[in-house]
Amino acid sequence: MKLEDGRLGVKAPDTYAQYFTADKPFQAVKKEGKVQIKDNNITLSAQEGAYALADMGTRAPSMTLECDVTIDEGGRAGFAFGGSEADETYTVLAMDAGEGLIRYEGYEIPDLAQFPAQAFTRFDFSSAEVHHVKLVCENEIVVCYIDDTKALSSRISHSTGGAHIGVFSDGCGASFQNITVKLPE
């Protein structure tokens, strides 16, 4: 897709709106740190060296999740996969505003700061205060679209078989507003 400034962007195919039509209610719960939950809005805050995590329940094998995300300048936040009875850990797909990256390496939240990004796409988080994010999940494949300009696709094996989905912030504040989850009919 061509953006207004002439650059090429990427967005989820329009046909997804015809396929993912059933609303899936969710009940987010605090798992770690300072978390505020009101309706379909989650706000997280974590001191440097700590993280906050809200779990939104079991992830459907085929689903979309859309929301508007705000991350503190230089912060790191995103989506967490795991937390099942079989494996309580969470791996994360991170929006790293400090490094200007969208990334997934299979790291748990505390490991993000310890290891360099290896699987990523660059993204300028300073281009807007609020970013529209759409996750498209089909079994282990998760594609993260952001602002119709960038996408990162990963195989997240830790996201199936009863795994949960959630949101996190790592050493910063972040908000996930207007969260909607949709399933195929």
Which labels suit this protein?
185 residues, mainly beta, Jelly Rolls, eight-stranded antiparallel β-sheet, seven-stranded antiparallel β-sheet, 1 helix, 2% helix
Write the layout of secondary structure elements.
Elements: H1 16-19, E1 20-23, E2 29-32, E3 34-38, E4 41-45, E5 51-58, E6 62-71, E7 76-82, E8 90-96, E9 101-103, E10 120-122, E11 131-138, E12 141-146, E13 150-155, E14 164-170, E15 173-184
Characterization of this structure:
The protein has about 180 residues and is an all-beta fold. It has a single domain (about 15-185), classed as Jelly Rolls, CATH 2.60.120.560. It has one helix spanning about 15-20, and strands at about 20-25, 30, 35-40, 40-45, 50-60, 60-70, 75-80, 90-95, 100-105, 120, 130-140, 140-145, 150-155, 165-170, 175-185. Strands 1, 3, 4, 6, 11, 12, 13 and 15 form an eight-stranded antiparallel sheet that branches. The radius of gyration is 15 Å and the shape is globular.
